[in-house]
Amino acid sequence: MPLRGFKPTSEGRRAAVLPDYAEVTKEKPEKSLLRSMRKRGGRNNTGRVTTRHRGGGHRRRYRVIDFQRNRPGEFATVVAIEYDPNRSARLALVQYEDGEKAYIIAPEGIGVGSRLTAGDGSPIENGNAVALSQVPTGTFIHNIELRPGAGARMCRSAGTVAQVMAHEDSGYSQIRLPSGEVRRVRSECSCVIGQVGNIDHKNRKLGKAGRARHLGLRPEVRGAAMSPRDHPHGGGEGRNGIGMPGPKTPWGKPALGHRTRNNKATDKYIVRRRYQK
How wide is the angle at C-alpha 25 spanned by C-alphas 104 and 117, nearest 5°? Predict the structure, then answer.
């Protein structure tokens, strides 16, 4: 997915670097695979804001995506590549031989006309879904399950890719994730060969605040620009440093690099932490 710059006809255009959408072949989504979405503005079921800086944005509809690929041995042909407003990756609209259509995350390197399959005995080729036990070590993968049959949970964003490092006799496979962490996953869990497409997504520049508002992102204010009652970093005459050991959140908790993982039940699956050099 190449990026494109613009002639500096305005300050918003001058700074913008956006995708050219050359890979997108279909503008209107498949009606049968759409569901309605309610906006929540970062609020939970009681109406409290649990994620700041969200709200507004263009109206969206959810695209139902097949993260399980549970039609083993059947071939699906890529009919179109589409934009999805709900995620950074592109979607591939595939059609099975019986006429059923489904959305999948579009891997890098596939296009209209590509034939994909899933299940035991599938070739180790881009876009095919197979069990981890069948994937040779060193192979790049994405859309990885954590529980067999539950659907893909890891490596679903644009450009993400993991690598199979080893297969254990205990029925687990070791996978190196994009963060650098090496994690053990059951070998019967499925994955998709290759890398998620839209690799240049991380290099885009919105160029103006209005484009962020269209995406549902609200403004952020620096803590140092607030008053002391609104933020631990606030207050003082003129510009001041943080004035305390380490940066804090508005509620006084450590921020910016502080480790928050607290899931001892899954620590046993981590072979190498992402912090290790």
Answer: 30
Per-residue model confidence as pLDDT tens digits over 197-255? 999 999 999 999 999 999 999 999 999 999 999 999 999 998 988 888 899 999 999 99
String of DSSP letters for 229-249: TT-TT--SSSS----SSS-B-
Q: What residues have CB less than 8 Å from 245, skipping those under 6 apart?
A: none
**Cα 257 from chain centre:** 21
Pairing mode of beta strands 172-176, 18-19: unpaired
To the question of domain 3-202 being in CATH 2.60.40.1120, the answer is: no
Sorted by sequence, the CB contacts under 8 Å of residue 196 that are 6+ apart come out as 89, 105, 106, 107, 108, 142, 143, 155, 156, 157, 158, 159, 160, 161
Secondary structure E strands in the chain? 3-4, 18-19, 34-36, 61-63, 76-82, 91-96, 101-105, 115-116, 129-131, 140-142, 144-145, 152-154, 162-167, 172-176, 182-186, 190-193, 270-272
Model pTM score = 0.91
**Domain coordinates of the chain in residue numbers?**
3-202
Residue 239: other Cβ atoms inside 10 A: 7
